Amino acid sequence: MTATRDKPTAGAGRPSGAQPINKPVRRRSIPLLDLYQTAVGKKWVMAITGLVLMGFVLVHMVGNLKMYVGPADLDSYAQWLKTIGYPLLPKTGAMWLLRVTLLAAFVLHIHSAYSLTRMNQRARPTNYSRRDYIAANFASRTMRWTGTIVALFLLYHLADLTWGWANPDYVYGEVYNNVVASLSNPVVAAFYIVANLALGMHLYHGIWSIFQTVGSMNPRFNPRNNPIRRGVAAAFVIVVIGANITFPLAVQFGIVST
Amino acid sequence: MQLKLKVWRQDGPESTGRFETYDAVDIKPDMSFLEMLDVVNVRLVESGRDPVTFDSDCREGICGTCGVMIDGQAHGPWKGATTCQLHMRAFRDGDTIVIEPWQSAGFPIVKDLMVDRSAFDRIVASGGFISADTGSAPDGNEIPIPKPVADSAMDAAACIGCGACVAACPNSAAQLFTSAKLAHLNLLPQGQAQRFRRTEDMVETMEQFFGSCTNHGECHEACPKEVPLDFIALMNRDYLKSKMKNRKLAGQVFP
């Protein structure tokens, strides 16, 4: 018996497999420097900047609760924000540090989202004619739209209450009066509520994603498909968005007024 | 049973595909989905037409060769089952069934419902093995492995590489496949020596062909072996660690 085998015919008459949709990662010798080239690395950046922005949203909500204490309390709180760490740091020094951090977090969060979305579109050039989703929910499938709504709202919110262009009754430093003047317009109040609901949807999927992306719940340390992840996301959304939505409603119903 | 099939027909990788509708008559509810396709194909051949090309091998849910989108779900409506394990009793008489191939840039269509999944082989070839010397075959239970760890590694090793995770993912991401292939070696003692090298190599090979994870969880629902999402979390964590540890190892090489 001759030990002849057919010549390997793999590849003959068949396509040579998938063409890469992304360039290989150029590895650098310094740790972490090449992380942003990769999708998993970008997800880490999204998760960490997301955590920073979550912290901001939470503190912003707590500060706004001063509205219910009184005009002087809210105004002096706003004044305090500008002088955090004052004798040690220059006035507004800490505030600018926070602003630069937040701006960097926003830019990185949005850029990584954009570039991952482009990558995902390249990965699925042809769509299915019919698709039944089982696990994907409304929040997870609308992340890019809720994110866009929140980003546009943020620009309006800054123009309304920080720069004052969009608020004809704006007076620098009179935070309480500015808020009441702005939110007493029903259209503006409705926009604030819609934007907060969009933020809530974004956070509900985003917070559970953070756990997944940073690998904080992995099978070595935690029970399978730990429900805490969804629970934490839901609790954070209810507390922050719930409180945020009361502000326009309170002004509309005259509970907070000048 | 009388069924209508709306099947994706595509002559080759470069051709444009189209849907064609066939009548599937005299289908028994006990037939598997692939047996139903066999019956339809026999009739197509008898009437002088080109049969529908699809992949299949073991027909008992362990080889990972079969797999099509059935009514918009990978491997059809049954949870934890491959296409060959799906039976026609899952459908009702008179249903119209839409059958499509996996759609992904990483899985080019060979013909009709058959796709080329060699991108998965590329991922495994880049690190899904243990080449560090682990000695000859040891006596049973010589290396103690805690039961939960062994169970987790086994759950990961259950992956049959069918590609349903990629097909079901809205981003066409292969994270569940890659993380399962990583976890079944990375959780065990024998896999530790190459753990971080393997993680870095396999993740970066995966990203050349597939999309990124947005944590929808569709992959787990589609997976015929119900591989849990937690392996993706483990992979994400190990990947960041690998970026640091592999560079540290590079610093220990003296020319």
Provide structural commentary.
The complex is a heterodimer of chains A (258) and B (255). Chain A contains eight helices and no strands. Chain A has one domain: Fumarate reductase/succinate dehydrogenase, transmembrane subunit (3 helical TM bundles of succinate and fumarate reductases). Chain A is globular and about 70 Å long. Chain A has 258 residues and is an all-alpha fold. In chain A, helix 5 packs across helix 7. Chain B is of the alpha+beta class and 255 residues long. Chain B has two domains: 3-110, Ubiquitin-like (UB roll); 117-134 and 141-250, Fumarate Reductase Iron-sulfur Protein, Chain B, domain 2. Chain B contains eight helices and seven strands; from the N terminus they run ββαβββββααααααα. Chain B has helices spanning 33-46, 118-125, 147-157, 164-168, 175-186, 195-209, 218-222, 230-250, and strands at residues 3-9, 18-24, 69-70, 73-74, 96-100, 109-111, 114-115. Chain B has a five-stranded mixed beta sheet with strand order 2-1-5-3-4. A two-stranded antiparallel sheet of chain B has the order 6-7. In chain B, strand 1 (3-9) and strand 2 (18-24) form a beta hairpin. In chain B, helix 5 (175-186) runs antiparallel to helix 6 (195-209) and helix 6 (195-209) packs across helix 8 (230-250). Classes of the chains: A mainly alpha (258), B alpha+beta (255). Chains A and B meet through helix 1, helix 3 and helix 7 of A and helix 2, helix 3, helix 6, helix 7 and helix 8 of B.
Number of DSSP-assigned strands of chain B: 7
The helix fraction of chain A, in percent, is 55-70%
In total, the number of domains of chain A comes to: 1
- The overall pLDDT average of chain A reads 89
Task: Tell me what portion of residues of chain A adopts beta-strand conformation.
Answer: under 5%
The residue-averaged pLDDT of chain B reads: 93
The helix/strand series of chain B, from N terminus to C terminus, equals: EEHEEEEEHHHHHHH
Low-confidence stretches of chain A: 1-15
Q: Report the principal-axis shape of chain B.
A: elongated
Q: Record the strand order, biggest sheet of chain B.
A: 2-1-5-3-4
Helical/strand content category of chain B: alpha+beta
Tell me about the largest β-sheet of chain A.
Answer: none
Shape of chain A: globular
What is the helix tally of chain B?
8
Determine and state the CATH class of chain A: Mainly Alpha
Secondary structure tally: strands of chain A = 0
Radius of gyration of chain B: 21 Å
Unreliable parts of chain B: none
Indicate the radius of gyration of chain A in whole angstroms. Answer: 25 Å
